[in-house]
Amino acid sequence: MEKYVVWKDHRWIYLLLIVVVSIPILSPIGLPVPISKSTMMSFDLIEKLPKGSKVLVSSVLAGGNWPDLGPPETALVQHLFRRGVKIVFIGFADETPTITETTLLPRINKYGARYGEDYVNLGFLAGGESAMAAFANDIRKVVTVDFVLKKPIAEIPIMKDIYKCSDFDLVIHIGMAEDPIRQYFTPFRVPLIVGVYGMMGPHYIPYLEAGQLSGMVIGLRGAAEYEYLLGFKGEGLMGSDSLSMTHLLVALFCILGNVYYFITKTKRKGDKR
Amino acid sequence: MSEFLRRDIPLLITAFLTLFMLAEYFIDLPILGKLGGDIRSWGVVISAFVLPIGIVTLVRNNVTIIRRREKNWPYYLWSLIIMFTMIITGLIGDLGKHPVFIWLYNNIFTHLSSTMYSILAFFITTASARAFRARNVDAALVLISGVFVILTVAPIGEVIWPGIPVIGNWFLDIPNMAGMRGIIIGVGLGVLALGIRTILGYEKGIVMGEKER
After folding, report:
1. For B160-181, b where at least 16 C-beta lie within 10 A, e where not — what string?
2. C-beta of residue A43 within 8 angstroms of C-beta of residue A195
């Protein structure tokens, strides 16, 4: 039996994982994507936004976390452009403004939105949660020019009448949820939707149930659900089959590993007698 | 005198600012709000200084290793070359818009960053086969709930058996939520205690090294 145990040499596991991830990408299976409650709440909230509403998209998107956070943000921002709302982007990771301009926005249909009038990128603020607190309380104190045109924000049409977080109708944060709950929702009670890492979704369910979060899009699965609701095929739906096969592989290994463990345990006990 | 300058003054500044920001949060006075806003913006400026400090430290450490020709020194040299290439091309002309910078960022940096993050998948899969063992009742419960949640999160769970997401969502909505609520409250109380210790000056680690403490 030992020679059939694939995990004795972990390279077989790596090879199996590569095959399992690659095949659905090259030849999609087309598994159905059930919609979770948290994604539906996010979609419904944005769907009800009146045209011209002001939305803050705050993010820690970077190259390293793009696979998990990029698809949710892409889907959410695509929905915002479709609704014709005004969008203000701000980053709290050093790569965020660059990746927003070079990777995120080129993938999105902006429906004729114009920079400066319909959306603006305010760049990066160093300091994590303290920067978020400073930004939420007084935007013009910490941000003087925008990221793309380097124009004073007082001269940018979209920033007229926006001075602090309470001037937004909705805040969307991409990253961990605790910081924006403390700095956006708790002091200002602005509706908050978060796009979070897949593994952190269960961690934030209490906040969703308590009403501190108005919606949550969880990782690649959440992005796939959101894209299905929007009716466009992005990285979420493309990766959804691979996600399914990988999870199935991990679950199978958990079960088979334990079956092997109990068989060999029984055999070891029998040998001892 | 030097102890007073090195340890006590920073602790006093920390305690004063912490109490001030606490007062600013709870007491609605215009003067407190204005000063609080100024202090928060100082935090952004101070944090921004971390970036050049990081660059200086990295250059200093790497140059020392390269000069001494320590093990793997060519990789340290290469990291300096790449770092300065990105910095210089990023600063030429319109900041961050040079074609070389954008090409390096889009075609090399982003993909390599994603790759580093994706290595985790291999470790988790290996662990699931070799390490996740139901050695006792507690471990068995964790394993069973974990398998159900893994299959609930992926669309394939519902395809295999419609009961999988029902059970998986029960695990997420009931035991998981109860446990996470307890953890969140516990963390909150811990942070509160840490804040009080900081205000009272008991947390000397922020101004002193580990050895001195």
Report:
1. eeeebbebbbebbeeebbeebe
2. no
Classify A37-241 by CATH class.
alpha beta
Query: Is B155 within 8 Å of A31 when comparing Cβ atoms?
Result: yes
In a domain, B212, yes or no: yes
Question: What's the pLDDT tens digit per position in B184-209?
Answer: 999 999 999 988 888 888 877 766 66
Q: Which residues of B touch A198 (CB under 8 A)?
A: 153
Model ipTM? Answer: 0.82
* Nearest CB neighbour to A31, from listed B43, B44, B156: B156
CB B122 to CB A14 under 8 A?
A: yes
Q: Backbone phi, then psi, for A39, in 5-degree steps?
A: -70, -40
What pTM, to 2 d.p., does this model score? 0.88
Put simply, the answer to whether B155 touches A62 (Cβ < 8 Å) is: no
Q: Which of residues 20-49 of A touch B (CB under 8 A)?
A: 21, 31-34
* Angle, CA A15 vertex, CA A249 and CA B145 arms, to 5°: 20
What is the rounded distance in angstroms from the CA atom of residue B197 to the CA atom of residue B212?
Answer: 18
Q: Which residue has the higher pLDDT, A223 or B1?
A: A223
Q: Is residue B69 part of a domain?
A: no
List, edge to edge, every strand of the sheet that includes A86-91. A119-124, A86-91, A54-59, A170-174, A192-196, A215-218
Any domain includes B160: yes
CB contact under 8 A, B180 and A142: no
Q: What is the CA radius of gyration of chain A?
A: 22
A–B CB contacts, 8 A cutoff, strictly below = 169
Q: Hey, which residues does A90 pair with through a beta bridge? A: A58
Q: Which tokens sit at A38?
A: 């948290």
Identify whether B31 is part of a domain: no
The answer on pLDDT for B95 being more than 80 is no
Neighbours of B98 (CB within 10 A): 16
- Cβ-based contacts of B37 with chain A (< 8 Å): 134, 137-138, 141
State the CB neighbour count (10 A cutoff) for residue B144: 16
Kindly report the backbone phi and psi dihedral angles of residue A156, in degrees, each rounded to the nearest multiple of 5, phi listed first.
-90, 125
Min distance B64 CA to chain A CA atoms (Å):
27
Domain that holds residue B173: 132-213
CA A154 to mean position of chain CA atoms? 30
